[in-house]
């Protein structure tokens, strides 16, 4: 069944949007009262999760850039919050190319104003929905070379896609377009680490008109089927790191992993 996908070109500040709620949780200013209303009802741990998620993205992107990956496709980028992915990777590789995608035109308005590429690199923005991957890939091919490794970044995105919308199939099909040596970087909210908190967060988002699909560890592991999951494996956000210093040890309801496409 084809999911009901709202037109990406329509501004809507009457309904909360996941990217803007995320921005509010991070202390950003690019959100609206309807987004703040959702955020204020979430438990304090939601702010911790947003911070941990962002820090994981920073570490994973920097490590991949240090390994020579210079092309990134970031789907579900959210409201720009410095430092952004391109600022992380272009600091290491100034010629890196980054393509951002989000389905909220307000997000893209801010992206076009704030996500300025390093002069030697490239940054592009696609207004599209992950549930319409063909349109994303068509635009991305104009910037990225799909004959060379690409890092596909799905940060805190897939728990907004339900099983009925074929979340695992979407990721599998995106991966199928990438050449060997590419990587999947994924973070995902857990339903089994702190079940009561997960139910509370899901209920509050639902009141704001946003459906969530938090998943168990085995369900999140399925996103990496057929890939080479890199050390330290599928772990919580503060546990994923490659270089010292280690992040502070703290509880987290976010699963994270990085895998190589063989």
From TrEMBL:
Organism (species): Streptomyces albiflavescens
Protein name: Methyltransferase
Domain of life: Bacteria
């Amino acid at each position: 069944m084809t999911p009901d996908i709202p037109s990406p070109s329509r501004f809507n500040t009457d309904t909360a949007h996941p990217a803007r709620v995320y921005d509010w949780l991070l202390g950003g200013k690019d959100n609206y009262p309807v987004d703040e209303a959702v955020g204020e009802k979430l438990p304090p741990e939601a702010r911790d999760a947003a911070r941990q998620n962002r820090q994981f993205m920073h570490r994973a992107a920097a490590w991949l850039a240090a390994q020579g990956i210079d092309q990134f496709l970031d789907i579900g980028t959210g409201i720009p919050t410095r430092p952004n992915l391109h600022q992380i990777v272009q600091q290491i590789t100034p010629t890196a190319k980054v393509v951002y995608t989000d389905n909220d035109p307000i997000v893209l308005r801010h992206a076009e104003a704030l996500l300025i590429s390093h002069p030697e690199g490239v940054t592009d923005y696609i207004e599209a929905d992950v549930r319409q991957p063909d349109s994303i890939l068509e635009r991305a091919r104009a910037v990225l070379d799909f004959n060379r490794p690409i890092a596909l970044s799905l940060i805190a995105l897939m728990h907004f896609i339900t099983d009925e919308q074929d979340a695992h199939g979407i990721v599998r099909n995106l991966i199928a377009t990438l050449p060997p040596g590419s990587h999947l970087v994924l973070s995902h909210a857990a339903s089994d680490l702190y079940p009561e908190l997960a139910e509370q967060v899901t209920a509050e988002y639902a009141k704001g008109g946003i459906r969530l699909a938090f998943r168990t560890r085995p369900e999140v592991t399925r996103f990496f089927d057929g890939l080479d999951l890199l050390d330290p494996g599928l772990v919580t956000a503060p546990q994923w790191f490659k270089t010292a210093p280690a992040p502070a040890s703290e509880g987290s309801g976010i699963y994270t992993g990085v895998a190589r496409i063989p």
